[in-house]
Amino acid sequence: MRVLMEETGEALKAEKKLSAGVAGQEAAAASESDESEGWTGRALIGEVISEEDIWACTTCRSCEQQCPVFVEHVDKTIDMRRNLVLMETRFPGEAQLAFKNMENNGNPWGIGWSTRADFLTGLGVKTYEEDPEVEYLYWPGCSGAFDARNQKVSAALVKLLQAAGVRFAILGNEEKCCGDSARKLGNEYLFYSLATENIEVMKGYGVKKIITQCPHCYNFLKNEYPQLGGDFEVIHHTVFLLDLVKSGKLKLSRGDNKSVTYHDSCYLGRYNEIYDQPRELLKAVGLEIKEMKHTGEKSFCCGAGGGRMWLEENEGQRINEMRTDEAIAVKTDYVSTACPFCLTMIVDGIAAREAGEQLKALDIAEILEKSL
Questions:
Q1: SS3 state at 175
Q2: For residue 346, is it within any domain?
């Protein structure tokens, strides 16, 4: 028994030494960990990825579309912008102006919110408040309501819808920016406030179907608003107009054998896979379509996506001018698009190249209106 107790005592001493050794190693490791806490490595924003690159992205998804290993970086880029905007309050000055305008007047231009309905009501379009029994809500977006060039697109689309006997109305001054630019520029709080207000208004009127002429509005109303409980049937005007033509409700005459090249909007094409319908409409009025070097899934961005519409472009060649060069190269009468941002950028590109006499930029709705 005495021998057993001595052996047990030695075993306990050995176990205590082993435990002490392990504890010492853990303490040392913890100490080393504490010492290493001060070392942060390379900062993701600023060292791994420059802030200039983060803000340069147009979110066109061309990189993702063509990447052989399916790297998806756009959403991560937006997350880094959110960090810069909401946590660091560090972002381009032009973005600050766009944020302020959206906060105060519900549109990036900062034009008084109470004038949003003026242009369209001047065309005889009723608001939902005046006629809540209509079938469709027409959503012109900020560009269609405020931008002088894109108001012409709104006017053309209204004439086409009226000619086809479509019953529609607008929200008028109750409509706010859809929030695309706010979210893509990283201001999630502003996007949330704009989107929830729009959803509340539309649900209040019992809106079920929405027609929009802007792919950015279309994408957000269709794919992002459901995240906040906004479930609506959203239709882009090219798809809706083609259905009207095929059903015989919209009768168009064939034109004068002119040629056109079509620019695919990134948010209509890559984001929502609408490629064929715009081209079918152009063929329906007798236009010859000539494709640019980059088209369809490999279309070249106009440079305005991802909130870049509101930011200056200070490095390298301007994206819209590069795209305009491709349009000029195919030597057509028209370059057509179905996006207000793309239209603005291409119009500016044509002006920069002094090519206004040889090439005219038109929305598809404007081309169809000529054939009524």
A1: coil
A2: yes
- Residue 211: strand pairing partners: 138, 235
DSSP string, 260-322: EEEPPPTTTTTTT---HHHHHHHHHTTPEE---SS-GGGPPP-S-TTTGGGS---SSS-HHHH
Instruction: Tell me the three state secondary structure of residue 151.
Output: helix
For residue 324, tell me if it sits in a domain. Answer: yes
Is residue 12, in this structure, part of any structural domain at all?
A: no
CB atoms within 10 A of CB 44: 12
User: What's the pLDDT score for residue 5?
Assistant: 39
Question: What is the per-residue pLDDT for 40?
Answer: 62
Task: Please count the helices (runs of H) and the strands (runs of E) in the chain.
Answer: 16, 8
Residue of 278, 320, 282 lying closest to 296 (CA atoms) = 278
Indicate the number of domains in the chain: 1
AA letter at 51:
E
Give the residues of the chain that fall short of pLDDT 50: 1-9, 11-12, 14-18, 20, 22, 27, 36
pTM: 0.88
Residue 294 in domain: yes
Q: 73 and 49 in contact (C-beta within 8 Å)?
A: no
The pLDDT of residue 336 is: 98
Residue 294 belongs to what domain range?
252-309+316-369
Instruction: Report how far residue 244's alpha carbon sits from residue 281's, in angstroms, rounded to the nearest whole number.
Output: 10
Which CATH number covers residue 284?
A: 3.40.50.10700
